[in-house]
Structure formats: C-alpha cells, structure tokens
Amino acid sequence: MNVEELRTAISQETGPDLFSLCGQVASAWHDPKVSLTDSLDLIVRLVAFKERFEKRLPGTGEMINEIARQAGLYPYVSDDERWTNRLVCEAMRLPSMPSVILHLEQMKVFALLFEGRSVILSAPTSFGKSLLVDALILSKRPDNVVIVVPTLALLDEYRKRLRRQFPEYNVITQDYQEAGHNRNIFVGTQERISSRDISQRVDLFVIDEFYKLDLQRGDDRAISLNSVMARFARTAEQTYLLGPSIDGVSQNEHFPKDMRFYKTSFSPVAADIIDYSDQGPDPDLLAEVLREANGEPTLIYVRSPSAAARLAFELMDRLPDLADERLLEFGSWLGDEFHPEWVLARSVQFGLGIHHGRVPRSVGQFLIHLFNNGRLPYLICTSTLIEGVNTVAKNVCIYDKHISTSKLDRFTFDNIKGRAGRMFQHFIGRIFLFHVPPEDGEFTVEIPLFDGFEHASDELVVHVPADSLGTNARRRRENVLASSVLPAQLLERWSRFGIDGLNIVRDQVEMAIAGGRDTFLWSGYGYFEEIEAAFDLAWAELKFEKHGIRSARQAAYFATVLRSSVTLRAFFNRLVKGEGLSAQASIDQCFNFLRGAEYTFPEVLRCLQEIVDTIAADRADYTYFAQSLQNWFLPGSLRTLDEFGVPVPLIKRYADFLPHESPDEALEVFTSLRLTREAPAMSSVEAEIIASLQEIEPNAQLDH
To answer: pLDDT digit string (tens) for 1-40?
Structure first.
C-alpha cells in the first residue's frame, strides 16, 4: 500500500491484519523513497491507535513501541517495560529535567547547544523548540539570559513557565523590575528589550520566531528586532534562534561568529487535512464542522479583528447555546464591565471565544485558560495566537486566505496548520481548509546582520550599533547623522519613526515657536487643546502605528475621555455607537486606542519631548502625561496587572487596597486573597479569573 492507503487503513482499522499493517509502516520508515514527514506521520498514527490495536491483537503495542523507538519518538515508548526501551528512554532523559524525555532530533539540537554552539533552528510547530530553552538553562545555569518574543501573548506564556521552572532566577518582563546581582532572565518583545538598559554580560540570547528579522516581510517592528539582534548576538556567549519550517537563512558574510543553521521536518504529531476549498468560506459549512467536532478544541483562523467579529455574529445564528451557566455569567460580566454590545460578551454563551491583539491581555489569558481546560470549545483567532502561543487545539479551521491585507504565503499557512494536534493529547490533529492553499515554495530568511546591514534602510542603519555595520552601511550612517541638526543620540533612539520625519518635525517646532504658535509647549496633565497640538506635530510626519485613530484631535479626545472615566464601562459608553454588528467598529476602535496608549502613543510623546528640548529646553514636559497615558491613568504601575491576568475593572475597583508601585506585590495580594474586609466582594466569575492565575499547568513534553 502507498502512504495514503496506509493512513486510511490505520484510521479505519481496515486492510491487512494488524501485524502486516505494522510491518508495512516499519518498512516505510526505512524506505528512502518515503519522506521523513510521511513516515513519521504513519508512525504517530500507529501510536494514536496503540491501545485499540493491542486489544484486538495482544503484542501489537510492543511492536508499535519498537517502531516508534527506531524512529526516535522516545517519549512515546516511556511506558514500555522492556529493558531496551527503558534504557534508551533513560539515555534521552536529561538529568536537569528528569520528567522529560527528548525525541531524537531534540537531543541532536540540544547536544549542539550544550556544547556552546550558536544555533538557528528551523523545525515544525510541534517539535518542542522552546523546551530546549528551558533544558539549556537548567543544564548550563547561565547567569544572564535575554529572550525576545514577538507578541505579548507569547510573553505571558514564557513569563508563567519560566517563573514556575526557575524560582531561583529573577524573571524580568517589566521596566520597573530590577535585575539581581546573580541570575536574571530578561523576557520581552523587541521594543521592551530594546528600551531596557541591560548592562550585565549575557550568556544566552534567544529570539523566538526569528523569521521576523527579514525586512522583506514588511513588518514595521523589524527595525527594533534587528537592533536587538545586532546588540546582543555580538556580545552574548551563545545565541539560539528558533522558528518554524524555514528552508534556509542568508549567507553570513559579515558577522564574526559562527551560527549553525539546523533544519528538520521531524514532528511528533500527525494531521488529517479536510479540504472544503471548492466550497469557499461558508458560515453554514463552518458551523457544521464545529457541530461535528462535538466539543473538540478548535481554532478558527481569520485575518483581522473585524473579520473575527463578523464571523462570530454569523456563527451565533447557527450554533446552539451551550447552556453553560459559568460561560453565561462570564459573558454577562464582560458586558457589564466593558460594553453590553461587545460581541465577545454574547459569543461565549455559544462556546465561542475571540482572541486577537486588541482583546485585553487578562481577558485573552482567561479565554486561553478556558479553551485549554475544555470549557470553551471554539476560539476565533488572528495571527497573534498563531505565533507561538501554546494551546490544546485538536482542530484548526483556516477560514481566511489573508493575514491583515496580505495573502497568506506558504510559510505562514504552514505555521497556522502546525497548531493542530498536541503531543500526548491529540496525536492526530485535523486541518479544515476553506481556501486553496498557497503554492509550495522555498522560504529563506534574510538576516540583515549577516551582510552588515548593507541593504537596510537609513532608519535601521542609524538604529543598530555602529560596530555591526559593513563599510558602506557605516558610511551611510555617518552621512545621515552629519546632515541633520538633531543630536546623533536622538536620531539613533527614534529613527524607527523615520529620519526625514524627525527632521521635518524639528523644523516645524522651530517655526511654530518663532511664529508664536506654541500651544504644544505644556507640562503636567495637559488640556485637550494642548494634547492635540502635541500629537499634531507628529501625526502626519512620523511613521508609527495609529491604532485606528484618524487624527491628532481624535487621539487627544480619546485620551481625555479615558482620563475622565471612572470605569472602563464609562469610557466605552461615551464612545460606542450603534448596536449589534454595527457597534463593533467603535468598540474595536476603543480597544485599539487602549492598545496604542500602552506603548505607541506615549513613545511618540517622549520622542517629541526630546525634539522640543533641542529648541526650547525646559518649556515643555510631556513625561507625566505620557506615563499616565501608558498606565491608562491607573495609580502607579497597576496597569501592569492586566498583563499578569488581572482585568482592569478589578484593578480599578481594588486600587485603594493595593500597593501602587509594586505590581508583583499587588498580584500576591490578589492571588492570596489577602484583600481586607473593607474591600468589595468578588463575583464568582472574578474569583475564578483570579484563581486561574495560580493554576500550574501540566508540564507537557513538548510545548511548541
């Protein structure tokens, strides 16, 4: 039988007798004409059916274990008592992680890392790439580690895992957290790592999802990521870059350190592909798929937050209410605390969650908690959940063929596919296609550091350390700095906003002051007109994410509404218009603004502050307002608790009972329920959210 016939025979338990079936799968493993991907897929399918086959034909389980052992799938034979399998499992068990058995390819990569080699790893989503980060730290005990992640959702996952795994380390994810004298693990997005002063010698430098270094992908955040890469890869003792299914990286012509590129297609999970592309994206068909899944954890990929809202409304008309009292209470709580027209407040009643970058961090974390614990069967998501976040999804529905406004390429498509299935829980995932998949093609990551940034933009050349540049790039950098009247340090720090734009804003500030138009010169909290004037300097000239806000005037208006609103519900009530689907645009705009207020808008104000200071020093000070906006006008640093999983409505309600300048201590107050008797009582939903923060999730063999 060919590979497809063997897959069918295993899943339907048809065809030859089980002994012959196992023999043919074993032969496929040794057949050079059968790809590694196909042969492993067949073996994993045997493992999935091992118990059923053993019942039909005693002894089959041992045969399947033997085949799995030969293929290097050692974690799957750990229950075998025969001395040969016990011996090999012990050999693949790390002394520093006795509960974990590595598979063959993991051990090969770990051996390179343990030797001190710098490695660029390309492996499938289910390989267990991040597990090797933990294994390396536990085995070599580096003093200082820097880990860069692409999203705050993935940052939260790392933070929880590392704090649980390494209590002896200072796990630092926030600016207010101080590094210790001994062991530190700095974890953050490229923007957070870039802005932090890390003076300690770095022993291990890690980038998760390193393909985002490639400038050709059109990611505006690539400037910050490449700056971090240039800063730490040169000085760190060891570098580990990890990413999914990449065919190659650009040749290293400039960087002085050797970095070994290691590519493997080894995957410990299998997947069935169900192709509905000839029927297109059809909500009736998708609802049928979800009903057939019968509660199996299912991710539904869409292109954008607005697409997620539209699909949720379409599915709510087609799916039955789950009649789950706790989900009903959660939905009511979301409506009461944010806005009753928010689609998520209704959709959870149908077992349908929504996860994207604009959903509040705490709410997103609780949705993943419900999903991973079997309480919420369906989760509509965008790429923010696809990029590295660990879930228990058995099924993935690829409902859209775009990511934002661009078509999915084969690489991103394969990354989404890889979220189906999970080791030891769902050996065989299912992928439902609603569009024709992208054509096959090689994907090579161009790493600008490897050619000395010779082909990078002026903004990037100015932003990265000068000693990482090639001859031509260094000359360009010198010319850019020499041609501007702005200080070199200012251009280096803020070049991501555009070199030309920074110079134009500087000239506009000078002319405005000379002409007496100086409304932007203010300090403290700022009035509406003053805030508008400051944002107006930057809005048209600087390159930054506007987060759905159309003008400087609207940004100032949203900021003043947020400042004057006692609750988030009051903030939404003043800005949301319409009902049902028509209300989602303004609700989404509110969430989008809040996301911009966390980082982008305060950073723009800090940049403006430095420009204004070059002309009118001490006449303006946006520092207090920028910091307050970043904290959503909550006391001290309490907004950070939202990233830790505490919803902002709870933070506001209990602010008087919490230490304002220490979110870590405030979190302990919440999780230990040490609130005073005078504090308002929590609802059952709120108590469950807080309880979920203390949950110790099972340490899976392979996280992702």
So the answer is: 899 999 999 988 765 688 899 999 999 999 999 999 999 9
Contact 367/355 with Cβ under 8 angstroms? yes
CATH label of the domain that carries residue 313: 3.40.50.300
**For 158-204, what is each residue's pLDDT tens digit?**
999 999 999 999 999 998 899 988 899 999 999 999 999 999 999 99
Query: What are the backbone dihedrals phi and psi of residue 380, each rounded to the nearest 5 degrees, phi first?
Result: -80, 130
Residue 641 lies in a domain: yes
Asked if 255 and 303 sit in the same domain, the reply is no
pLDDT at 16: 63
The letter for the amino acid at 474 is: R
Who contacts 582 (Cβ-Cβ below 8 Å, separation ≥6)? Answer: none
Query: What residue numbers bound the domain in which 282 lies?
Result: 270-433
| Mean pLDDT of all residues in 608-617 | 97
Distance from CA of residue 326 to its chain's centroid?
28
Gyration radius (Cα) of the chain, Å: 27
SS (H, E, C) 20-87: HHHHHHHHHHHCCCCCHHHHHHHHHHHHHCHHHHHHHCCCHHHHHHHHHHHHCCHHHHCCCCCHHHHH
* Long-range own/partner contacts, residues 313-316 (CB < 8 A, 24 or more apart): 313/343, 313/580, 313/581, 314/283, 315/283, 315/286, 315/287, 315/290, 315/347, 315/350, 315/352, 315/378, 316/346, 316/347, 316/350, 316/352
Q: Last residue of a domain, which of 433, 448, 468?
A: 433
Say if residue 47 is in the same domain as residue 119: no
Residues contacting 604, CB < 8 A, separation 6+: 497, 535, 538, 542, 544
For 597, the token pair is 């207020």
Residues 305 and 215 occupy one common structural domain: no
How far is it, in rounded angstroms, from Cα 129 to Cα 126?
8
> Cα angle at 588 between 586 and 592, to 5 degrees?
115
Q: At what angle do helices 129-140 and 152-165 cross, to 10 degrees?
A: 40
Domain co-membership, 61 together with 187: no
Q: Are residues 248 and 312 in the same domain?
A: no
Q: Which of 42, 68, 91 is the last residue of a domain?
A: 91
